[in-house]
């Protein structure tokens, strides 16, 4: 529904109350909409800007509010306090837009997180390389003493702390630290000799 191009039935519109203009608007008076916009456009924009913190979105919402007033004028309730009504619908629409924006941002963040969590499928060459590396590491571990191999496997394969390893093996904590340090040094040397770098 577009504003009628007919002459307004109201005379001296600048002196007419908001409530009377709203009634005229419901009767299809386009001039009434123009006056209401001139009077309260800044109010709507200011409130929208305060909530949305985005000038373009606030401007778009201001236009949307007044277009809605025109297009749905005949179904709008009888408004005795027009400014209060205008503030209410502006705040409601702005909050809805803010929630929509928040949901979109969360969706983008979720998709981004999912993308970061995706591990690319290794290429055939990488699979062979990883298999060879694993075999060499296992071979290097077999060259350690049993105590050294035990503490390293418990630490790196099961994620146990040195205190937990000491409790599980029933040996002093100092012994665990010594075996770990000596085992890693020996393991590093074996792997370096085999051209495989390992980091503690």
Describe this structure in words.
It comes from Brunnivagina elsteri CCALA 953. This is RNA polymerase subunit sigma. By secondary structure, the chain is mainly alpha-helical. The chain has two domains: about 15-115, Rna Polymerase Sigma Factor, Chain: A, CATH 1.10.1740.10; about 125-195, Orthogonal Bundle (Arc Repressor Mutant, subunit A). It contains eight helices and no strands. The protein has helices at about 20-25, 30-50, 55-70, 80-115, 125-140, 145-155, 160-170, 175-195. Helix 2 packs across helix 4. Mean pLDDT is about 75; it is low at about 1-10 and about 195-200.
Low-confidence stretches: 1-8, 196-200
- Describe the largest sheet: none
The CATH architecture term of the largest domain is Orthogonal Bundle
Q: What string, H for helix and E for strand, traces the elements in order?
A: HHHHHHHH
Q: State the CATH class of the largest domain.
A: Mainly Alpha
Strand content: under 5%
How far apart are the first and last residues' alpha carbons, in Å? Answer: 74 Å
What percentage of residues falls in helices of 4 or more residues?
A: over 70%
CATH topology of the largest domain: Rna Polymerase Sigma Factor, Chain: A
Query: How many individual domains?
Result: 2
Please report the total strand number as a whole number: 0
Taken from the alpha-carbon principal axes, the silhouette is rod-shaped
Give me the CATH superfamily of the largest domain.
RNA polymerase sigma factor, region 2, helix turn helix motif
